[in-house]
Specification:
This protein is an alpha/beta fold. Helix content is 42%, strand content 19%. The longest helix is centred in the first third of the chain and has 21 residues.
Length: 350
């Protein structure tokens, strides 16, 4: 399946009013689908999105992936599914882990099973680096979502293909660190960092959409795709923002919070041993393609296991200048800098 195959297809996006949904919709509309169904439980965001696009091909459904009946109603005559609905905020998940279980695992299972029951052609689930060697509730539930996807992909008998993508920090997505730092700058506060040598992958939203569309076109049952991306330290990120905004404010170290890692891992060492290198992407092949339990438990493969997988610690590192050049490509950053500079001019004139 190529991007051209989206022509006249009906597409369902769960959690479609989030950062990913808002970005992928613009890309998909250019490929002339028949209809895009935005499925979410936030009526205000749906109202805003409807007004922003004003496109008759967009159809908005209020529903919750936890409710299998509402998922089934939205799945009627759907060809393709992008499953982006999730609880993603790490600190919140540490306080309310069962809520993440209900949405990220059970809700995701509802979407997958409904897609199979309705003979959907392809399903792409969106996962996170936090699912690799997980240490927090969000990562643990996303890891089990991946395992659930692989199980559904293995069991599907009607031709429905289920696969997934996994990515790290998506720049300026909701809840990410960059808008948090920009908020500090706009309020004239110190930039609060957890640890300056902490590293994160830096992936623009547009590239996360490319990853999902690549998985849609190339994915086989149970595959998980990741995109290779540069990384930087939090210190480099903060210095880049200070340079772009011409902000002299101090940097305040607050220490690593519960549930946080020093470095992100997109592909584990064990997965890297069986992964396929697709140039800009890794394709992680599922370990078992069928329900032959005996073969799964008694047969292995001789493979070299790398020492650390593919991580933000060993990925190419961006300098302050390179990070600044990447940041300025983001329309949100351009808008924030313009508004910040204008506010400074106003303050001086008063």
């Amino acid at each position: 399946m190529s991007e051209e195959s989206i022509f006249q297809k009906t597409i369902l996006i769960t959690g479609g009013t989030g950062s990913f949904g808002s970005t992928v919709v613009r890309r998909l509309l250019a490929l002339e689908p028949k209809k895009i169904i935005i499925f979410s439980r936030d009526e205000k965001k749906q109202f805003d999105m409807r007004n922003a696009y004003n496109d008759p091909r967009l159809e908005f459904w209020i529903g919750d992936v936890r409710d299998s009946q509402s998922v089934d109603r939205a799945m009627h005559k759907v060809d393709l599914v992008f499953h982006a609905a999730a609880f993603k905020h790490v600190p919140t998940g540490e306080f309310f882990p069962l809520e993440l279980v209900k949405t990220n695992i059970l809700g995701s299972a509802n979407v997958m099973q409904s897609a199979i029951d309705h003979h959907v052609e392809r399903v792409v689930i969106l996962s996170t680096d936090k699912a690799v060697y997980p240490i927090n509730a969000m990562g643990m539930t996303k890891a089990l979502m991946e395992k659930t996807m692989i199980a559904h992909a293995r069991e599907a008998r009607n031709g429905t293909i289920l696969c997934g993508v996994r990515y790290g920090n998506v720049m300026y997505s909701r809840g990410s660190v960059i808008p948090l730092f920009v908020g500090h700058i706009k309020q004239g506060q110190p930039l609060k960092v957890t640890h300056r040598e902490m590293t994160r992958f830096m992936l623009p939203l547009s590239q996360s959409v490319n990853l999902v569309l690549y998985a849609l076109s190339q994915g086989l049952p149970g595959d998980i795709f990741t995109r290779k991306a540069p990384a930087c330290t939090i210190d480099v990120l903060v210095q880049s923002l200070q340079a772009l905004f011409k902000y002299p404010g101090e940097i305040k170290d607050i220490g690593i919070r519960g549930g946080e890692k020093m470095h992100e891992t997109l592909v584990s060492a064990e997965e890297l041993a069986r992964a396929e290198d697709h140039g800009e992407y890794f394709r992680i092949v599922s370990e078992s393609k069928d329900l032959d339990y005996e073969k799964y438990f008694t047969e292995g493969k001789k493979a070299f296991i790398s020492s650390g997988g593919y991580t933000s610690e060993n990925a190419p590192r961006l300098s302050v200048e390179e990070m600044s050049n990447l940041l300025i490509t983001l329309p949100q950053i351009k808008k924030e800098i313009s508004e910040y500079q204008y506010s400074k001019i106003l303050q001086k004139s008063l």
